[in-house]
Amino acid sequence: MDMDMYRCVECGFRIKTLFVQYSPGNIRLMKCENCKAVADEYIECNFLILLIDLILHKPKAYRHLLFNVLKQGAPHFEGLLWKSTVGFLLLDAYRSLVLKSCDEAWSSSTSLSSLVWTCRKLLTDVFLGNLLFLGTFLLATKIFMSISAGSLRNKDILLAILISSYFKMFLIVMMVWEFPSSVIFIIDLFVLSSNTVAVKVMTESAMSRCIGACFSAHAVKIFTTQMSLLAEAIPWLVSIMAALPKIKK
Ligand SMILES: [Zn+2]
Predict the structure, then answer these.
(1) Are residues 46 and 164 in the same domain?
(2) In the chain, how many domains are there?
(3) Rounded to whole angstroms, what are the CA distances from 143 to 5, 150, 213?
(4) Could you read off the pLDDT of 59-113 as tens digits, one per residue?
(5) 159, 84 in Cβ contact below 8 A?
């Protein structure tokens, strides 16, 4: 893939420059050779308009963000990837904590053992869960997607997934205001759909395949979380089973 090329936000056609600058503040936007539309209208737009279009899941807004702003092969690309990974993991850790604090057992017992239990659960959910989540994502895009996805680097797909999970930032709002925990479910659904649009824009594959890839990755993550819960419940179940004969007597 040519890393020096920008993309037309309307059709995804590669373009060398997005605008020509005559003097400071005086620019002319370039037109796409393929669809004859202005290649990237977001250059002159307010950030709020971009944000609204991202929330509305417009592919052109995703194309602008993923191809023209976060330019692949740029010197700051690696740093951005690390920062977004850390941000993503921190928000996910907070999400797990919110879910845990909704659990009554957690609020009633604040002993050392429950603290250790929470830390262990958090590590499993956040690190193992997301490792498997991102791994499944990369594997699915490589296996199911079209030829254009084959030329994409893992880093590009990874950054697209991390950035398109921006709606997780709404969790920060939950730190300030009280919300029911069901809001987390809505945020999760939004992240899932946003990931799907980002993968569609990046790989130019059929929508059904993108939905399949995103759905399987999210399912693997949920499965990991549930399995860790089940693993924690096994000693508890065993102790109940052991106590049953005594109760019968
Ligand atoms: Zn175009």
Answers:
(1) no
(2) 2
(3) 26, 9, 9
(4) 999 999 999 988 766 778 888 889 999 999 999 988 888 887 766 555 555 677 7
(5) yes
Which residue in 66, 4, 16 sits closest to 204, CA to CA? 66
Looking at the structure, tell me whether residues 109 and 220 fall in a common domain. Answer: yes
DSSP state of 32: P
151: left (phi over 0), alpha (psi -120 to 50) or beta: alpha
Residues 178, 207: one domain?
Answer: yes
Dist. CA 244 → ligand 1 center (Å) = 70
pTM for the model stands at 0.82
Expressed in angstroms and rounded, the spacing between residue 80 Cα and the centre of ligand 1 is 27
- The Å distance, Cα 29 to ligand 1 centre, comes to 13
Same-domain pairing of 59 and 80 = no
Say whether both 22 and 82 belong to one domain. Answer: no
Model pLDDT for residues 105-150, shown as the tens digit of each residue? 555 556 777 778 778 878 878 888 899 999 998 888 887 776 555 5
Domain range enclosing 59: 1-69
